[in-house]
Amino acid sequence: MRERSLTLIQDELVDYEKAMERMADLVAERQRDARPDTLWLLSHPSVFTVGRRTPLHHLPDPTRGIPVVETGRGGQLTYHGPGQLVGYLIVKLGDDEGIVDYVREVELRLVEALAALGLSAERRDTPPGSELLTGVWTVETGRKIVSIGMRQSRGVTSHGFALNVDGDLEPWHWAIPCGMPEADMTSLLRERGSADMDEVRAVVAKAFQAS
């Protein structure tokens, strides 16, 4: 992995659409070299977000009452809610790397963070001829604990990852996450029996060399 020192921004619960507006500003500043590479850690009120290629039958029943918002990131449907740590990465890529390279780096840094939290996890290789398989899974149970969806514009990344810490997992059952009907979504609380958001924030920031 490359050595990157990131500036850390931390917030608690931020409305998703307001976060998208701020992220767009951060990206524009990075494109102008007006700010350094940045990791923004936060959480969102309950919301489903969908990438541009999300099939309609993957969407939740609207009677569930959770809003569905279209987003410009890669990937398909994901769920955000309290008890989940979201990390937005505004990073200028090197001339010799692309967004897929950076997504792989993000996966490995999160595997490292989870190991420091006492949970063995792994990224998975994409089968030949298949769509890019992104995220992080637990080694012991094979459940998915991190979702990743990113994009790049003029060499700068945006969006990022969602790590389930101690939130309600039930909404994941109301839709098809990440284009994977077989995915069993999990959290640190489910896997370890305990989880502390402040600890997770600190460990994730360290894994990304963010301060």
Automatic annotation (TrEMBL):
In the reaction, the free carboxyl group of octanoic acid is attached via an amide linkage to the epsilon-amino group of a specific lysine residue of lipoyl domains of lipoate-dependent enzymes. Catalyzes the transfer of endogenously produced octanoic acid from octanoyl-acyl-carrier-protein onto the lipoyl domains of lipoate-dependent enzymes. Lipoyl-ACP can also act as a substrate although octanoyl-ACP is likely to be the physiological substrate. Pfam families: LplA-B_cat (PF21948). Its main location: cytoplasm. One of its GO terms (molecular function) is transferase activity. Its EC number is 2.3.1.181. The lineage of its organism: Bacteria, Bacillati, Actinomycetota, Actinomycetes, Streptosporangiales. Keywords: Acyltransferase, Cytoplasm, Transferase. It is found in: Cytoplasm. This is Octanoyltransferase. It is an enzyme of class 2 (transferase). The record marks K144 as: Lowers pKa of active site Cys.
